[in-house]
Amino acid sequence: MRRLLCSLSTVVVVLSIIGCAGQRGPDATQPSTMDERLAAAFEVLEKDAMPVVVAFSHDGGPAVVREFGAFRDDGIAPEKSLVDMGSITKTVTAVAVSKLVDQSAVRLDETLADVFPEVPADKAGITVEQLLTHTSGFTEAVGDDPEEITRDELLRRAFASPLVDAPGARYGYSNVGYSVLAAILEIRSGRSYGEYLRDEVLAPAGLHGIGYWGSYDDALSLRSAHGDSIFDASWGGHDASWHLIGNGGLVTTAETFVRFLQAVTGGDILSSTSLERLLHPHVAEDPEGTSFYGYGLVVQDVPELGRFYWHDGGNDVFSAEWSIHGDLDDVIFVAGREMTAGASTASEAMSVLREHLYAKE
After folding, report:
1. DSSP letter (8 states) at residue 70
2. Cα distances (angstroms) measured from residue 233 to each of 156, 263, 277, 314
3. What does the pLDDT look like over 195-237, one tens digit per residue?
């Protein structure tokens, strides 16, 4: 499950939002209120018939949820549409592992050797925190998402794969690393990934509806342009297996995920210490330091606007992206289809929303 590291919305945040907007940017008649700006953004999404579902919450309020393009006519209410979160799953996994830390079931400085007796010497010293920050040195993947594979087989392949860097040397995005985190979570909690997420992360915050098979309803799934559901297009016609567990493929509704992010940042799930660590810019994603990775999320400071937190993801069929404007307490979640090869519909829609909501007047 790839992350779209060069998403259009990233460029928009850094450039167009501070006055260099391209053709989609707002003009001199930019509306002044947030409601007006949101309506203007929705007009663009409607005009372009983008196949996306959008949820937006301003200043901690309830989410406004809308669908556009083909999804408007699919017979499913936007509040009930199930979306593939893609690599945004890593945000959820990072929160779950941080919860496990709060419960003293794992430590951030623990190594793979502390958890897995069979781990080879070159990977024995990799820490939980290095897995969270993509500095473990693990390769990006050891197989294709739809392949049915068990946890033990995933770990065997991961431990046998050559490291791309020495542990701790640099940032290197790794789906494998987050699946190893999911395995650690299961071993230390004594529960499946889905059970721990449901019982220890979501339920205490009054949430439900983020998961794999236990949260899935094929009749409510977004569909590809060819009519394929998440079950077929993303999971391979079976429940998500261990090429996805912990790193990709979770399903949710747009509104539910906005509420999840609000619960996380509002302190309803994690201790203040764990929340601070989650949101901290631990490691630069590029040599220029234009963005940083926390735990399962990107931290990016935008001139004149402040700090944003976000993550995106997708496969060849679906895409998704979330964003939090830290100073305004705004939350945006977008999910949709891939428009063309290599172009993320979710990031394209996120660009429209950010341009209209936050561009300088």
Report:
1. G
2. 26, 30, 35, 12
3. 999 999 999 999 999 999 999 999 999 999 899 999 999 999 9
- The 3-class secondary structure across 164-208, one letter per residue, is CCCCCCCCCCCHHHHHHHHHHHHHHHCCCHHHHHHHHHHHHHCCC
The pTM score is 0.93
- What is the homologous superfamily of the domain 8-358 according to CATH? DD-peptidase/beta-lactamase superfamily (3.40.710.10)
Whose CA is closest to 12, among 338, 337, 334? 334
C-beta of residue 293 within 8 angstroms of C-beta of residue 285: yes
Q: What is the DSSP letter of 18?
A: G
Q: Do residues 19 and 360 lie in contact, with contact meaning Cβ atoms separated by under 8 Å? A: yes
Token code pair at residue 28 = 């001199």
Integer-rounded Cα radius of gyration of the chain: 19
- Give the Cα-Cα-Cα angle 180, 155, 117 (nearest 5 degrees): 90
As a whole number of angstroms, the distance between CA 321 and CA 119 comes to 34
The per-residue pLDDT for 339 is 63
Q: For residue 208, what is the DSSP state?
A: -
Query: CA 341, CA 134: separation in Å to the nearest integer?
Result: 26
Rounded to 5 degrees, what angle do the CA atoms 168, 171, 174 make? 100
Query: SS3 of 123, please?
Result: helix
- Domain ranges for the chain: 8-358
Q: Are strands 298-302 and 306-314 parallel, antiparallel or unpaired?
A: antiparallel
Nearest by Cα to 323 from 306, 339, 337, 340: 306
Which token pair is 319? Answer: 């895409």
What are the structure tokens assigned to 137, written together?
Answer: 């040195």
How far apart CA 247 and CA 85 sit, in angstroms, is 10
